[in-house]
Amino acid sequence: xxxxxxxxxxxxxxxxxxxxxxxxxxxxxxxxxxxxxxxxxxxxxxxxxxxxxxxxxxxxxxxxxxxxxxxxxxxxxxxxxxxxxxxxxxxxxxxxxxxxxxxxxxxxxxxxxxxxxxxxxxxxxxxxxxxxxxxxxxxxxxxxxxxxxxxxxxxxxxxxxxxxxxxxxxxxxxxxxxxxxxxxxxxxxxxxxxxxxxxxxxxxxxxxxxxxxxxxxxxxxxxxxxxxxxxxxxxxxxxxxxxxxxxxxxxxxxxxxxxxxxxxxxxxxxxxxxxxxx
Length: 278
Prior knowledge:
Layout: H1 10-28, H2 32-37, H3 39-54, H4 66-79, H5 81-113, H6 115-129, H7 137-143, H8 148-172, H9 176-184, H10 189-200, H11 202-226, H12 232-242, H13 245-276
């Protein structure tokens, strides 16, 4: 006696069980997401090694092999130069990002909450936002020089506009019924902002913060290329002038690693903020 075929009602249950099994198995794999994200960098590293050490497609000046770049990093680390370059660049990025993101949050909140401030200031901010980043360099050089203050200011300009745009746009589109409910509970002004409005736009705000952080790293390199005695941007310029492509690639790799690491830290803060507020 043959068994009856599975009914349409049975099949979704089986599919659901299989999907749940796959999901739970994926969750049980420790570091599975990190390991998956490492596949592409490892493949690129292998291709780099094949192109330089095995196939000899490039000369050592055009593209040195990975081992040579690694040895250059070890040499700079042992001399203490690499640590100094990384430390000063991190300091500049963190300071510039803190200043720029803080200003973006404040001004974005002001224009997002006040129609009068939005009508008065938004056209001017929009015009300033359209100015190319390097156009600020001559003014910064003229006013305060391109010392530490000038570099931090340039980085702050880069971080400011993505954060401002995200906060301003998000607050302008907060559900009015949610705001009215907050006011019904007696929330007004700053308390309404911190208790109702900002928690409602946490994902958008953090998206702006992450873009602003990426911009901070871009502006860091621009500021250090124009005038610096240390930093990863300075290492790029010095390596190019001396024909040290291995150190130049090392600086690029370090910028990529530091940028990803800082973005991952901000992502952890974002997840905690989402659990707390959103």
